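Structure first, sequence second, as always.
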């Protein structure tokens, strides 16, 4: 109906065309203005950098390693390149970069969570639950987490995953334990003939065995350790290799 009316009234059609042309020109001018302001002025310049998730790494270090200060414009900021820069650090498992107009860059990192220190003949290496080597450390550091005996295997590379099967299994066992269950353990030996063997800070041993049935073993281990603590029992070792008949008794040595 509207088209028929326009055909009947040429002057209305001419007016409609002019109005449409004016609207298009206004949008084009506005778009050009926004483009110029965004790309050729400091209207969207990078002025603030907010770092989140920095627990083990310093915020200033994260900002410096990201390379964000090399870029001036928020719109043209190469987000992928900055993320790639940060992922080069072994501490950083993942990173997310976002922009907040008009001047802010948000850098949110997810750091790897240390679970153990592997002792390779006196050389310490911090690893996460995936056996990823975060950094080389002094064995006097990180005393609150488990120290795993590395045997005579080759020293690993920082920034790579461990490749020694027995050590990886030991790390996997530790990662599946609740933090409150893992906390009392000071030492771990994956090369003991009885499987994974742990030594608690109070002195008694836990003969854990293989990596199988970890959930059930952890439940039994938690119940027995709670009983030992609650009743002030003096225990030399706890053997979980036969899960239906865990053994509590004197040291075998």
């Amino acid at each position: 109906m509207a088209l028929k009316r326009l055909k009947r009234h040429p002057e209305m059609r001419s007016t409609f065309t002019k109005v449409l042309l004016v609207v298009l020109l206004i949008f084009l001018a506005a778009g050009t203005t926004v483009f110029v302001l965004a790309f050729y002025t400091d209207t969207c310049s990078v002025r603030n950098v907010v770092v989140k998730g920095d627990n083990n790494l310093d915020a200033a270090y994260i900002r410096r390693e990201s390379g964000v200060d090399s870029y001036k414009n928020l719109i043209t900021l190469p987000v992928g390149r900055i993320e790639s820069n940060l992922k080069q650090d072994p501490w950083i498992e993942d990173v997310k970069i976002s922009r907040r107009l008009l001047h802010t860059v948000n850098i949110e990192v997810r750091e790897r969570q240390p679970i153990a220190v592997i002792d390779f003949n006196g050389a310490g290496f911090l690893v996460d639950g995936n056996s990823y080597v975060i950094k080389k450390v002094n064995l006097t550091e990180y005393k609150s987490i488990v120290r795993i005996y590395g045997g005579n295997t080759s020293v690993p590379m920082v920034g790579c995953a461990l490749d020694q099967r027995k050590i990886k299994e030991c790390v996997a066992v530790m990662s599946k334990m609740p933090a409150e269950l893992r906390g009392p353990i000071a030492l771990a030996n994956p090369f003991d003939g009885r499987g994974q063997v742990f030594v608690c800070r109070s002195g008694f041993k836990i003969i854990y065995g293989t990596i199988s049935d970890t959930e059930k073993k952890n439940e039994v281990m938690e119940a027995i350790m709670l009983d030992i603590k609650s009743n002030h029992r003096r225990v030399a070792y706890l053997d979980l290799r036969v899960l239906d008949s865990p053994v509590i008794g004197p040291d075998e040595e």
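Margin note: The chain is about 35% helix and 25% strand.
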